[in-house]
Amino acid sequence: MTELRKRGGGGGDPDSSDKEADLDDRLGTDGECDGDSKADTPDVPLSTADTDNTPQYLNKALEGLPPRWKNYWIRGVLSIAMISGFFLIIYMGPIALILIVMTVQIKCFQEIITIGYRVYHSYELPWFRTLSWYFLICVNYFFYGETLADYFGALVQREEPLQFLSRYHRFISFALYLAGFCMFVLSLVKKHYRLQFYMFAWTHVTLLIVVTQSHLVIQNLFEGKIWFIVPISIVICNDIMAYLFGFFFGRTPLIKLSPKKTWEGFIGGYFATVVFGFILAYLLSQCQYFVCVGFNSETNSFTVECEPSEIFLMQEYTLPAALQNILTWKTVNMYPFQIHSIFLSSFGSLIGPFGGFFASGFKRAFKIKDFANTIPGHGGIMDRFDCQYLMATFTHVYIASFIRGPNPSKVLQQLLMLQPIQQLGVFHTLHSHLRERGMLPPAATPQAE
Amino acid sequence: MTELRHRGAEAPIQTQSSEDKGSDSELRLEKDGASDGESKGDSGLAEVPAPADDTPEVLNKALSGLSSRWRNWWVRGILTLAMISFFFLIIYLGPIVLMMIVLFVQIKCFQEIITIGYSVYHSYHLPWFRTLSWYFLLCVNYFFYGETVTDCFFTLVQREEPLRILSKYHRFISFALYLTGFCMFVLSLVKKHYRLQFYMFGWTHVTLLIVVTQSHFIIHNLFEGMIWFIVPISCVICNDIMAYMFGFFFGRTPLIKLSPKKTWEGFIGGLFSTIVFGIMLSYVMSGWRYFVCPVEFNNDSNRFQVDCEPSELFQLQDYTLPSFLVSFTGWTTVRLYPFQIHSIALSSFASIMGPFGGFFASGFKRAFKIKDFANTIPGHGGIMDRFDCQYLMATFVNVYIASFIRGPNPSKVIQQLLALRIDQQLHIFNSLKAHLMEKGFLPALEDVMA
User: Fold this and answer.
1) Strand pairing report for A301-302 and B259-263
2) Sign of CA dihedral A72, A77, A80, A86
3) How far, in Å, CA of B201 to CA of B132, rounded?
4) Which of B170, B194, B210, B309 to mutate to test the interface with A (most CBs of A within 10 A)?
């Protein structure tokens, strides 16, 4: 695998998406090989699109077709490959999902940071790569530590070093971050102050975008795999449907930022996604594998059997009069989750694209065609995940606001951290509350010593 | 009040002489932000205005007799005393005033940094940008203050119907507000200015991250007890002043290239004197309930109250001195507040790590070739200049309290308990009962469950 990268002025050319120019066998790799091309001025488009990095066997297989169709075939094949990959990791279970999310996050971070390096020619500041990765590790440590402490609470309490780490978690994370901060201050070199501050800010904004989103994705996952699968599927479906509607019916451009998007694609994608989400929610709500949540501390694995919460239980809804006349049904059996899925789909179709426009604007601002060349025909990982930015946050906020109450194990943890006197106070309050509600027989109150 | 701003290419070179500020005696109180628009037409230097002489005329007249160097000391000294007196005054005025002052300082710091960003990038002709930056500031503040208000004013919030809805869906509303700003940003992207706009977007977010989260932590610390607000800030101020004095009298070895005026003698002298100061200050303050009690909102009287039983942290205890100190001082035990020991940790952090915040700000000023963040305080520069060492202190105090001092708040835990489902409550009840019986706080009774 040669690692040549062809860089040229054709970045803004829309036809370069055909990628027909080269038949060389080149799989692009980020990061290490960027150092060669340092001499570019910032205004030269940092195009990464002209390299044809489709594997050679694919090229041979599609040799016969005209170039335009070849592009579609490559994109199609890769799309199907990615979707199959998605199904496979869902099948493999939550731990694999968490690992995949983390890999994606690291790759996205690397892509964006690499762009930053190229824009600012910051290669001669060797500390910078170290510091950026160090900050990534710190922030990940902080977030994953909090997640683990919440969800694997019982396991953590058992092991002594884990207990110590969990109790002083915030302090340790902060100390680690501070060490990085001090390293940054000490590494300030006289001629490069401005560059260094830019890279510092670039790193932090990237962390803010990429790492918090991935953390929220993991938190959604812990609510039940369905909260992970449905939003991501909705965004993928919207992408594909908007593309197809735009391809067949597209006429009116949507926004100057992305000239290929059209209103027909947008609206068609919206309705198609709502229907798709509705059907998908119906299919998945029946399966306990997707709906259940929770780490079973006895078996040290994720439970796949549980009592589904009420939003995954079929309920009867009375149709409003208008719909009754059309459909002649009085009531309909639905999962409440399907109604939530309508909101998720609407968000994914209406606001999700703004994440895509943001990424397009970013690429135009820094004159790059794609974030990287990791996926043949599609660009980098960030290109695939740009519409997911806001979706993960929205899903998380949606769950926190409308679905989930506080996490019981977390509340129990906090209870156990109180002083015994306070615990007794809480105990008595809870006792009288439960008695009022009739959950406990009105026995004599236990006397505190 | 004229609003002239003296801008020139010699701004960075005049670092020493501009300290004197003796050259001008015009009456100029400057205002940030608004007046920047006028002077846009200067050369393409990405430099922010040189410090104007903005000492009020009254001071200038009073000090006109002294030579310029001493005059500078007097101006700085008087303003320092003025700021410290102001600090005492607002402590006296109480928690609400303190919160408002913190909010005001935060807004001013944000404005100063954003103004620098505008000047650096000449982004004035993107009118949406100022609106969007302030809008994001509002959103983030709304989010943080909403969470604080919900926690502290819990009963009041539950009583009033609109407040209750706002509090229940708070995260969603904040997110929706932020999203609106995000969409406005995307829609406002103009073809020729993409890169500028993304830079300003990034600049705004990093500023929010630094300034707003710090001020939020300060408010949190304040609610733990005013002593947690006063002692850290005083330690940082004391360290500034003491390091300056030690450096002035004994300074010889430079500390770091970024700030050539800092010396090792100042650094170490500042460390020891700040620790001593911290111990003494915490001794004095721990005796007063006004400072020691957590700030709570009294639901009946609808006011803040600071009255409580001091926690054990603020009660005198006997400590046995280690043997070498016994032989040294002749005392076997010493009476201390446990808080004084914590204050050693706080002072050490303020003296050792606090200056890194100052170096960060110095590096930032050199990177963007500005002398001071702004000219708000005569002799001292902008509000950010005074608060640069406080950046890390507020976060540290918050993390320190969360890790070593404060357990969860029992009333908050009860709130969360009551929000759970009944079967979950029952489950927790049983676990708690088992735990308490194990520890011997409850007599072993027959099972109360049906």
Assistant:
1) unpaired
2) negative
3) 9
4) B194
**DSSP-assigned letters across all residues of A246-303:** HHHH--SEEETTEEEEEHHHHHHHHHHHHHHHHHHHHHHHT-HHHH---EETTTTEE-
**Site of tokens 């999700």:** A352
Task: Say yes or no for a CB contact (<8 Å) between B363 and A422.
Answer: no
A50 to each of A12, A366, A371, how far by Cα in Å?
Answer: 11, 16, 13
Let me know if B322 is exposed, middle or buried by CB neighbors in 10 A (0-12, 13-18, 19+). Answer: exposed
Phi, psi of A318 (to 5 degrees): -85, 125
CA distance B316 to chain A (A): 20
* pLDDT tier for residue A65 given thresholds of 50, 70 and 90: low
Q: DSSP labels for B328-351?
A: HHS-SEEEE-HHHHHHHHHHHHHH
Residue B5: which pLDDT band, with cuts at 50, 70 and 90? very low
The predicted model scores a pTM of 0.75
Q: Which of A377, A430, A428, A285 minimizes the C-alpha distance to A28?
A: A377
pLDDT band (50, 70, 90) for residue B69: low
SS3 A82: helix
CA distance B331 to A296: 56
Q: How far does A75 lie from chain B, in Å, by closest CA?
A: 27
Report the residue from A390, A425, A439 with minimal CB separation from B179: A390
Q: State both tokens at A299.
A: 């078996």
> What is the radius of gyration, based on Cα positions, of chain B?
26
The alpha carbon dihedral of A159, A160, A166, A172 has a sign of negative
Predicted local distance difference test score (pLDDT) of residue B12: 34
pLDDT (0 to 100) of residue B46: 39
Cα A316 from Cα B139, distance rounded (Å): 40
Per-residue pLDDT of B390-437, as tens digits, reads 878 888 998 888 888 766 566 667 766 766 667 777 777 777 777 777
Q: With contacts defined as CB-CB under 8 Å, which chain A residues touch B445? A: 446
Kindly determine whether residue A188 and residue B363, on different chains, have CB atoms separated by under 8 Å.
yes
Cβ-Cβ contacts under 8 Å for B100 (sequence gap 6 or more):
none
* Token representation of residue A22: 């080269």
Q: What is the pLDDT of residues A167-177, one digit of tens each?
A: 788 889 999 99
CB half-sphere exposure, A6, CA atoms < 13 A = 17
